[in-house]
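Hi team,

As requested, here is the filled-out complex form for the (2S)-2-hydroxybutanedioic acid run. I kept the field names the same as last time so the parser does not choke. Let me know if anything looks off before we queue the next batch.

— J.
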Amino acid sequence: MFAARRAFSGALQTRAFSASARDLSKVTVLGAAGGIGQPLSLLLKLNPRVTDLALYDIRMAPGVAADVSHINTKSKVTGYDPTPSGLAAALNGAEVVLIPAGVPRKPGMTRDDLFNTNASIVRDLAKAAAASAPDANILVISNPVNSTVPIVAEVFKKAGVYNPKRLFGVTTLDVVRASRFVSEIKGSDPADENIVVVGGHSGVTIVPLFSQSSHPDLVGNADLLKRVQFGGDEVVQAKDGAGSATLSMAMAGARFAESLLKAAQGEKGVIEPTFVDSPLYKDQGIEFFASQVELGPNGAEKILPVGKIDAAEQTLLDACLSDLKKNIAKGVAFVAENPGKDL
Ligand SMILES: NC(=O)c1ccc[n+]([C@@H]2O[C@H](COP(=O)([O-])OP(=O)(O)OC[C@H]3O[C@@H](n4cnc5c(N)ncnc54)[C@H](O)[C@@H]3O)[C@@H](O)[C@H]2O)c1
Ligand SMILES: O=C(O)C[C@H](O)C(=O)O
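And here is what came back:
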């Protein structure tokens, strides 16, 4: 155990020393005291690429910050009060803003059932971000992602600061799950399983493309498909009313933030799946779509095409696109009909 701990801290130190002064990165978490926010803040504190960690929530962010700040890595941690000026200060100068603020599901609910509560939370946080961190990379975790991402886009458009390359719906958990579930079937190491998942982040909009993996035989595996599309429900049911995935989501969110920072600091070939403003299906009226995206200093540098897929996968994709169109339209309509208060 001690050897493992030494190896881990050694790896952190090597990376800490390799970061240069120009790589100062402020990362802000909005919803930092929640089930996702707390472990996400912990993982960001362990990341040497993060030099300034800003934590905001409507409750307990200073407490979470005090706790996390005792971890002996170099970054500065600040918890902000739940006031407009606290929120503005948390956002000011941020390079990456992660948003896990909002309510999670209970058994029997769909992600869309969260819309009524989370849409206005995300809209108001997006307004604050548009005002105080207009150039930040915004990573939306709050559900329903298929609608909350368009909400952020509409708010930024209204504020005149929308940059489609810097807005991301975090769908990383879908590929994390897919690689893990495949490894359980194949007896392999999940680190070796690169499963592309496209579409969106709920039910049938989650489309794994096993034909593009090293296991095309898995295309017809209905149980596996169900686990990937409804993995979130497994956790919601197991937690039995106490929330949804938090720990695996924190890992997935921290991975995406790390990839963005790596790419911003000049690493080439950093590719992550994410739900972005995408040209891929715009001709069908679908403005956002999750696919493999190459990240770079400007955010989303290159949106990779879906590529060749199996006929059965095409059927899944058709169902996805039909749902996705409605989810996106719902987010856009929400902001038009409920502009909210000026900041
Ligand atoms: N994208 C994904 O893959 C994914 C995965 C898991 C969960 N989620 C979603 O993430 C969200 C959060 O889940 P959780 O389990 O952390 O919930 P949680 O209830 O444990 O935490 C949410 C936090 O948000 C805070 N909050 C609420 N309104 C706020 C506001 N206006 N400003 C700042 N903070 C605010 C709450 O005080 C709370 O601390 C949910 O919507 C959930 O569905 C998404
Ligand atoms: O399932 C949920 O509601 C949370 C999250 O979107 C997940 O995929 O775990």
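Two things worth flagging: Confidence is low (pLDDT under 50) at residues 1-21. Residues 104-105, 111, 143, 173, 232, 235-236, 244-245 surround (2S)-2-hydroxybutanedioic acid (ligand 2) (CB under 6 Å).

Thanks,
J.
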